[in-house]
Specification:
- Helices cover about 30% and strands about 20% of the residues.
- β11, α7 (about 210-220) and β12 form a beta-alpha-beta unit.
- The protein is of the alpha+beta class.
- The protein has helices at about 1-10, 25-35, 70-80, 95-105, 145-150, 175-180, 210-220, 240-245; strands at about 15-20, 40, 50, 85, 110, 115-120, 130-135, 160, 180-185, 190-195, 200-205, 225-230.
- The chain has a four-stranded mixed beta sheet with strand order 7-8-10-9. Strands 1-3-2 form a three-stranded antiparallel beta sheet, with helices on one face.
- The protein has eight helices and twelve strands.
Length: about 260
Amino acid sequence: ATENLLMAAALASGTTGLENAASEPEVVDLGRALIAMGARISGLGSDRIEIEGVRALKGARHRVMPDRIEAGSYAIAAAITAGDVILEGARADEMDALLAVLREAGVTVEEKAGGDLRVCRDADAAIRPVNLVTQPYPGFPTDMQAQMMALMSLADGASVITEAIFENRFMHVLELVRMGADITVTGASATVRGVRRLIAAPVMATDLRASMSLVIAGLAAEGETVVNRLYHLDRGYERLEDKLTALGAVVEREAEPA
């Protein structure tokens, strides 16, 4: 909503004030692109943004910021499989909340020169349970909740994950349970009791991040997992199967029946 209003207000007559504005890095990045095009915007990154409308915008060159949710998803994929992955161009300063939780879970996260991140976990090191609550930026992102739940399903102990941003965002729970996860939902919280292993199963993607959590779970599960309704996944992950295959995963895309 903040991004839509930013774009509309940039060309609106007069000055527009946005209260309770989102402060995510993606909002700031869009604001900077609009400023490069001639928009007059102040307060980016705060909860109040002021936009003074202009008559027209001009062309500009702008490098889009790295996708912190995509980077975080690959980080969790490395963690759940006891892998060792370099995330080139990831911005650790915009992923503080996630990286802190991964370290708490026993995952090694190293910031490399040039902005890269190394994420790895020793196969002999147990995944430690963590409790977390999704929050607006800079808190733990709701868009990483489902992926983290997949990781916690194999933790050595019980975790509590509370979704404080979106209602009805635990639809992936039943699909993870289908794979052998032990998860109980009470209101806005899910208690995840770690199991020794996940078992492959046919599962159904219900939304973008839920679909990625099922792919992550499938990477660690015994057997062949089939994730249906990939059109959700394609909204947020470009060439996912190619990237995972390059990392050593066995992933194939099959045409879904009409």
